[in-house]
Amino acid sequence: MLTYLASHAVVLVTVVAWLVMLSRISGSQRTPQSTFAWLLAFAFVPLLAIPLYLALGSRKFPARAKGRQLAIPPVRPGNSFELLTTGESAFARLIELIQGAKRSIDLTMFILGDDETGRAAVGALAERAKHGVEVRVILDAVGSIRTHRGAARALREAGAQMRVFMPLRHSPIRGRSNLRSHRKIAIVDGHVVFAGGMNLANEYMGPPLKDGTAPRWRDVVSVVRGPVAADATALFESDWVFCGGSRRSGSEGRAATPIAASGDARVQFVPIGPDMTTDTMYDLFLNGIFTARERVAIVTPYYVPDDALQHALVLSARRGVKTELLIPALSNHRVADLARREFLRELSANGALVHYYARGMVHAKAMVIDDDFAYVGSPNFDMRSLFLNYEDAVCVYSPAAIAEVRGFIDGLISECPSEPPVFPEHRVIEQIALLLAPEL
Q1: Burial of residue 418, with CB atoms counted within 10 A of its CB: 0-12 exposed, 13-18 middle, 19 or more buried
Q2: Domain range spanning residue 261?
Q3: Tens digits of per-residue pLDDT, 188-240?
Q4: Reported pTM
Q5: Which residue among 44, 106, 115, 227 sits deepest, i.e. has the most Cβ atoms within 10 Å of its Cβ?
Q6: Count of structural domains, the chain
């Protein structure tokens, strides 16, 4: 009798939990692929799926997750904009900015490498901290899992501060372990922002390579001076407090003080993540693609869009807009390469131009729409970046800045073979990979 009652109680609790989870997932802002994957899990392995959903399922959090929700900053005039398109030039520029800092350095990275590049960056930050510069560093707990403890010791010994973003063991009301900080930002003295797709590791950036060394991944970062730096600083300050740090003394007053103009570029610093009420870059992408008149050009290492973004690009190509996508012929993520194939076949069948870069890995994330809009930043053109990660993007709206981004994209396209590679079709495997796409 007791066994029967216990079994009945387990079934009853499971059914109730299943219904609650079903109502939650049906009312959440999720992609169809993600919703379908969770529904399958609830149907076939509820005892595993329910605790997994409680641990990983939510992707948007109320104000308590970071103390407050962020607003989308406006477009700021009066900035200078510089594009760095090699890992060597980016590393030299970042070290130059760090070494020239007078008051403060705020840096957040997904990956800090246990290599020459990572050690050089930590050394440069520590040196400035020893000379009285306030240095604050945020490293993602997963991306920098092998290095953040050693970096923390070195930085703290020099007088700098370091925090870890979303430790794997944390309060569930403060986020989910699968929501990672993919941001790559350095802010120097509150008025210069270094931001893009490069992590602090050898494959992304560093000193000139020795002969015989594998080439670095193709990537891009921007350096922006001017009023937009206040928005990047506000984002870092929010992340810093979320990670357990204290607000910088006088930060409220400094935020209210306008930063002097440094150029004529109109720039918008766009935060992306679970702390935003909307999916900021996703909305920008959709709006830009639907309103494009002549050209849409995208560079991304991983192409795993949701149905709406894919259809927007298909319609763009159908209505005569030159629609171009550049991706690595083979990326460093095999599952992502399998998941993208059906999307790429559909794009090509509808007149879009898919360029496969065959000279190594392309890690750059960039986009140009007509002569009106361009961006570089950390978000890939995939569902993880657009719906799960904490990311950032530098969007530009001035002709000269847009032309720089366009020139970078066109340069990569010119290096692609005229004939696309032939990939064997494995439809079942591709569909399985696509089911995993929301978490790739």
Answers
A1: exposed
A2: 65-272
A3: 999 999 999 999 999 999 999 988 788 999 999 999 999 999 999 999 999 99
A4: 0.85
A5: 106
A6: 3
